[in-house]
Each structure stands twice: as C-alpha cells, then as structure tokens.
What does this fold into?
Amino acid sequence: MTRLTRAFGRPLALLILLFASLWILGLIAAPQVIMIEQSLWRMERPEGSAEISVRIDGLYNQLDVLALDRSAVEAEADASIRAQKLDTSDVALAALEAEIAGLEATESTPVKVYTLANFAQMGSAHFAIFLKTIVASLAVTAIALAVCYPIAFAVAKLETPQRAGMIMLALVIPYAINELLRIFAWQMILNYNGPVNALLGLFGVEPIPFLESGTGVFVAMVYAYILFMVFPLYNVLETLDSNQIEAARDLGASSWRIHTRVVIPHARPGIAVGCIMTFMLSAGSYAVPYIMTRGTAAPWFTQLIYNRFFEATNWNVGAAYALSLLVICTLFIFVMMRLLKVSLKDIAK
Amino acid sequence: MSHTGMGSNLVLRIYMALFFAYMFLPLGVMLVAGFSDYSPPSITVWRGGTLRWFSELWADERMWSGLTNSLIIAVAVILLSLPMGLSGALLLSKLGGRAGGVLYAVMVSPLLTPGLIIGISTVIFWRHLGAAAGLVTAILAQSAFIASYAMLMFMARLQRLDNTLQEAALDLGATQAQAFRRITLPFLRPTVVTATVIAFLQSFENYNTTIFSIGGQHTLVTEIGARMRFGMSPMINAIGILFILVTLIGAVIWGVLRQRERKLEDLR
Amino acid sequence: MTGQTTGMEIELRRSEVRFGSFQAVQPTDLRIAPGEFFSILGPSGCGKTTLLRLLSGFLDPTAGDVLIGGKSMVGTGPSDRPTALIFQNLALFPLMSVLENVAFGLEMRGWSKVRRRARAMELLETVALTEQAGKLPAQLSGGQKQRVAIARALAVEPAVLLLDEPLSALDLKLRQHMRAELKQIQARTGITFVYITHDQGEALTMSDRIAVMNHGRIVQIGTPDEVYDHPDAAFSATFVGEMNVFDGKVAAGADGFARIDTRLGQFRATNPKRLADGATTLMFVRPERMRLLDAAGVAENRLAAVVQRRDLEGAYSTLTLQAQDQVLTVHLQHLGGADQLAGGGDAGF
It folds into this structure.
C-alpha cells in the first residue's frame, strides 16, 4: 500500500485498489466461493422428523379421544355442567391442535444442511457422461496438438517473417467468425443429407449418421478450438533461434532428434498453454454439443449442468456439477504444468 | 538449395494447404447456404439464389433487440474491464514476491476457467444478494474474464515502460498523479486501443458465459443459438455471411492501418 | 577413445552462390591446407558467412564443387560432413546442462550414456570447465560459454572446425585471451580451422593465412605479414589497418620500385603490380611508417604538413596533419613526455 501510494499518490492509489478489489473480490473470488458453498448444502427435512411424525400420529389419536369425550359430554343433561365441560374440552382440543400444527410445520420446513450429497447425486449415468466428456476432451486436445505442431513449426521456421505474419492474419479470419456460426456450418456439412454423405453416396457408401453418433461433436470441437492450439505454439516457436536447429543438425542430429531434443523442449510453454486452453474449452463447451446433436446423441457434461440450473432448477446439484468440472480443469492445469515443467508466469503469454 | 530437405518441405506445404482448406471450408458452406433458396439450409440441394434470408433477418425484431443488448453489454464491459485490468496490472507492477504471485494467479484464473462456470457463479452470487439474472449479471460475468485479457496486455506494456521517465517527471516537480497522467497513460494509449477492440470482440461474440448468466434476456449471439435449436432457418447463414463481411472489412482496415504505421516509422 | 584427429584439406573449385539475382559468392578457387589456421576477413555482407555455410553444408554451391579431404561434399548435409561449426551467437542449447551440450553430438552418434559422459568430461577438462558441468549455459560467463561451444564442437572430432566470429560478443581483454586459447587448441589438435571475422586484429594475430574478401570475391590471400605489409589490392590495403592514400601517376616505373608524382611531390614506392610509366595509381602509406623530421634532413619521401591535433592512444599517439588539401594520419611511438609539437613541421617516411 505504501509502495502504491509512493508510486501513484494517494487518490490514484485508492482508485487502483478500489477497481482491483472490485474485480478480484467482487467478480472473481466471491462468486466462486458462493458457488462452492452452494454445492455443499441442500434443504432437507429436519433431523428427527421421523420421531416427530410418530408424535404427530399419537397426538391425532389423543385428538380423536378428546373428540369422542366431547360428544359424550354433549349428552350431559345439566346445562351449566355441560357448558363448563364443553369449555374445558374445547380448550384441550385447541391446545392439542396447536401442538399438532406446530409439529407439522417443523416436520415440513426443510433446513439448510451441509452435505456432499449433491456430488453423490451424480449417479452412475451422469458419472459416465462426466468421464466421457473428460476422455473426449483429452482426445480433442491430443488431436489438436498433433495437427497444429507441424503447422506452427512450418509457419514459424520455414516462412519469411512477412509471409508468416500474413498466414497468421489469415488464420484469424475464421477465428473471428462467431463460434456458433462455424459450428452450425459443420452441422450442415455432416448432416444426414449433407455434402459429406452425398460424396460418400457417390462411392456407394450408405449415409453415416455423424450427428446422431456423436462423431459430429468431436469433429466440430477439434475445429472450433484448434486455433487456441496454433497461436500459442506459433508464438513460442517463433522465438526459437534458428541457429539452435542448425547447431543440432551440424552435430549430427536427425530431424526427429532435432524436434525431440531442441524444438519441443523450447516449445513447452506454448504446448502447455495450447493444451490447457483446448482442454478447458472442450470440456466446458456448451455450444458444440448443443448445436451438433440437437438432442439426438448422448449429452456432454455441460448440458447436464445447464439442465440442473434451468430445467430441473436444482441449483445445489448444478453447483456441485459445475464444481466437479472446475476441479477437473484445475487438475489438468496442474498436471500439464508439472509434466512440462512450466510455471503460471510462462503460461499467460 | 539448403539442406532442410526439399521433399519434406513439399509435404509440409501440402499439409498446410489442407489445413487451410479445413479452416475455411465451413465459411464457404455458409456463403453458399446463405444465398440458397432452400430451407432447411443445405448445400446439396440448390433451388436458385435468393436474398430472402437477408430481408427476413432485417425484419426480425428479436435479432435487433439482441444486437442492441449485445452493444449495451459490450460498452459496459469495456468501461468496467479496462479500468479493472489496468488497476490489476499497476498493482502487480508494484507488488513483488509471494503476494504478487498469488494475486497474479487469481487474476489470470478466469482465463483458465470454463466460461460457463464464470456465468453460473456470478448468477448464484447475485441471487444471494437478491438480484435476478439479466443484462447486469451478464456484464459482470463477462468483465470477470475480459479484465484478465486487459490485465495481461497492460502488464506486457508496463514492463517496457522506462521507470526513469516517471522519475524524471517527479524530479521536475510533477506530482505522482501528474506523472501518471502525462507519462504513463500516454505510453499505455496504444494498449488501451487494442484492449478496447479485444474486449469488444470478446464480449460481443461470447456465448458460453453469457448463456449461463443472462437469465431471461438475450444477446444477438444467444438469440442465434436459440434459433439453431428451434427450427433451422437459412437466416442463420445470412448472419454468418454478414459476420464474414464485417471480419474481412476489419482485417483489411487493420492491415491498412498497420501498413500506414510502418510507413510512418520508416519516415522517422 | 578415438585417437587424435588430424585436419583435412579443403578445396573450392569455381564455387559460387547465387540467391536469385544476387551473387553472394563469386566463382572462387581456394585451397586450405590440412591443419592450417585460415581466416576469412571482410566487412559484413561480403559473403564470408555464405562461404562458411558452403563449407559446413547448410548450403550447396549454385555452381562449382566443394571438397573436404579430397571428397566432393556437394549434396552431403551438415550432419554427415567432417566439419563442426561454432556459431556467432554460439547456439548453446539453453535447456541442456553444459555436460549435455558437450555430449549432444556423441548422443546423436549413438554413444552410450556412460561413454559420452566420460568423453564430455574429458573435453570439459581441457577447457577447464569440469566444475560447471551441471550448470545451464545461462549461468555461465561469456568466456565460459565460448569454451563450452568449443568443447561441444570438438566432441564430434571434426577434421575441420568452422568458426563464425565467435569472439565478437566478448570484451577486449577476454577476446585477447580467447585468441591465444583458440590458437593453442588448434596447435594441439591439428584440426583445420576456418575462422570468419571482420576484425583484422583477430585475423592477423591467429592466422597462418588470411583471405581478404569483398563483394563476394577473395581479393587477396597471404600470410598476415604479406597482407599487412604488401597488400596487393586497394581494398585489402585500406581494410586491413589504417592507410594514408595519395593519388598519383607513375613517373619512373622499375622492377620492385617506382617514382610516383603526386600533388604533394614525388615519392619513391614499391611497385608490386609492376606498373608502367604514366599509369595513374594510388599510393598507400601506413601511419606508423611516417616520421616527423626537422626542417633539414633526408631529401627523399618528404612532404610538408601542419600538425592539427594530437591524440594520445596509449602506446602511441595519433597526429592529424594537414598537407595542402589532404589530411594525413601519423602514429608516433609514445615514449613519455608531451612532444613539443605545437603546430607546423615536416613529415617524412
């Protein structure tokens, strides 16, 4: 704080602190904390509600007895005694009814209970979808890496800087078109009546239900997020001194060894960023499965989260599901950082 | 000529051409289908060209209100995320050690978090405070991660700021605020411009965070998403064509501006 | 261990390199003896680096032939040539330890880990870096990096070591030290050294022979003494060391010597090109070969000039003289005590 004041003066330092804490606390930390909290509780019938209902049953029995007594009293001849007895019986009845009403209220008013039940709610079906989403996202990431590495290397090391700049600018164009529209185009391409099946038909192949089988989701997902792999890889390979490659070749390294020993070690931060982004976007993608399947294939985990929130409106379970996804993504980040020996500073370009 | 190997070079070039075809194929499909007089959208059936989808789009009230909402959100996000991102960057520039590291991790975390989780957590948080989801929650959710982009951009720029300039200004009698206004801010101006553009694009094009945080309201993009589910109008491709057009114009303008900038630098 | 390697002969036969319409290296014939320390000296852009790439195998000649050890190398890649290259920026692999750097070439040749480590340690010992074996290149000083690069190149036991201005990044003291070290290594190993430089001091102190290069052409080849004392081209005269230049005409040419008429009088000079009477020519005089004379004295090779300024350089002082419209430079050995040169006086050589 003193350092901040000394650098910017008091008013400016306060303004900086204000905006920074609005962001860090108000927009990042607090919502996450509340979401985690939400995932850890649910409204339950209160503890001991079984005993309460037994007691309520008992009280109803007493009530019946009292009512019987009362109807017996009505037969009493002496008017004054009858009125007096009826009064006492009415008072007893009212007290009993009040007690029943109170107990019933306790029994049916749910209380907030901290529990892990929201996570346990997932059940085997949803857990299978969860696993499928993770595995498929890992596969998307691996494919994107395999496809992009040669591209990024070719553009960064074999083209002149001007041409490389042009190529990268050209790649920004499809990236700037909205995600949904690009996915929709793939939906048309892979449609049962689409051009791919039409082309296959020319060779006598029966139409393949790409969309219905989930293949479409996969293809479109690789397409939608591949550029998040290309750019980090390109950026890091561009900084590789070409002399490094030549030195390795001069010392007798084959192309394969040049890549495994010199280029890939240098590209580690880019590989980490690309993989983390691609995995995170794939696992957290709602648009791709939503558009590609239109409800015809087994859903992606994000669709389950959406349903918990906006269709089943069970926010506690929804928050638990969302948190599970977040944990997996965070885990993936740590694994990548560990595996590739990079720090968070290296990751954020 | 060189021993990088002509053969493997050729293979790489073919591979690159294929990659480009893959990247641009969907855009081509969009172009054809957008002008095709056939519904549901298809490129295998051709019944002649039409501009019908564009006029339908023009007459679509919800698309227009979505566009208005998108613009409102984008402007608000810019106004919110740039000062926040800049504040974060300035804070980090004066904060070293462990505290700086932790703060940095928190500030970049929204970029590494799935968008839908940012959207959901924002909605949950504001419902606790009694506010329902709507444009405001969408703005706040988007700002949370767009400020991270701004922070990274400002930080990169600040690292190249010569600290002696500021010291010289202070030595010449400027207050810290004056030094900030006269030295630091002008130095950051180019970044302010690019950060504004990036923030606008990120906000305008966002789907994942917005759909989970906007409640009953809609933006242009969430409306497009809704249309894709209910009925398959080629109107969507008409929007796609407009997006391509705007992007190309943007790319050309950007290229021209960069060329002019380079020429100016050459003149110096 | 393989025994001591010996240098190989290098031969260029009408080798030339064109990049499109740009002639980087003119057709060149060159023969470098086995075990020779051969320098190629020239300004940047003269084609010396291209020549080096021709020898190292990163480039094939557009025409002509390149022979090493009597075998044509055209079409042979850098990994398969008996050469090793030391890059201008050294190109040490930043993510590998010093030991791994030195062992890299052996690793590429399939040596076992134990053997290559032992050999690399031996080499590190010869350059006095065993202590640094586990460090990363970034943790070393400039001179240490230099020695790692040398050890790394020597590890593959090349017959020819190619050096691309490797000392240019060092400060003066270290540079002088490394010159001696390089010379020592060359003498010890008997490897042919081809040393590229734009620094005449480096070329003169280390080389057995020097090739002076300009505009893609070798203009003179000779021992350091020959090149310095008997430049046979205007370019090598002015590029190697300082020169005073006089326009003139041959008055009386003879074998070995000639009388030259200039605006400042007639002078006697060597005539290496055996110019005939009446030929216009340039006469060169080294600044350290000129002396200041009293008004009376030797009659030959004498001119009148006015001293403009004197700069003490250390071992000698530089005088700037004005002789009519020509500015002359004279180096005088500094023997202590300011000379009483106020202005005016005669110069002779």
In short: Chain C has a mean pLDDT of 86.
